[in-house]
Every structure is written in C-alpha cells, then in structure tokens.
Protein: VWFA domain-containing protein
Organism: Hucho hucho
Amino acid sequence: MSYVLKELFQESLGMRQEVPHVLVLLTDGRAVDDVAQPSRIAQAYGVSVLAIGVANADMDELKKIAYPASYQNIFYARDFDDFSSIEREFISNICSEALLSEFRQHYEVQNTHV
C-alpha cells in the first residue's frame, strides 16, 4: 500500500487533483508490514480505499486498511471463483454518490487551505 501511494498517486505521474482517487486493495492473507500508517497517509491524501478480502484475508486488518466511510468499503469472497458474489455490490459502491461526496469534501478542504 505504501508503494502504491508513493509511486502511483502522484501528480507527476498523471494523477489529477480534481477527480476522485480510489485504491482497490485485493488480498488473500495478512500484510507483512504495518497497515495502519499507510492507511492514514491514504486518508490524508484523500484516497478512498476499498478492500477486497479473499479466502484467508484478515478482516481486522481490512478494517484498518479501508478506513471508515459513509459507504461500504470492505468486501469478502470465499475464494477467487466467488468474485461474482460481490461484483454488483462492489461496483455500486465504487461508483456511489457517497464516495464522490467524500472526495468533494476532501477536495474542498484542501483547496481552502491553499
């Protein structure tokens, strides 16, 4: 997660400030490093994190990664073949007005401090 935030969510690499920033994290296990700090950084950057856990994913860790939001941001599939069970709900949430509203609030706060 730290790598993605550092290497992909950068204006110099084409990230546009005026569009929602969304990170979809897919995992089937536990992280080998701390997830709390990168999650706080993502939140500070205004990056909405949606986490998809598969099989042996640690739900407590997913809750730390996908910080509280006004929309569902944690999904779970029993295995990779079970993705169809979460597909509709995931698409609905990643395209939700709640996610867009969260981005707008962060964007407005950032621009009032500039």
About this structure: Residues 1-111 form a domain with the Rossmann fold fold (CATH 3.40.50.410).
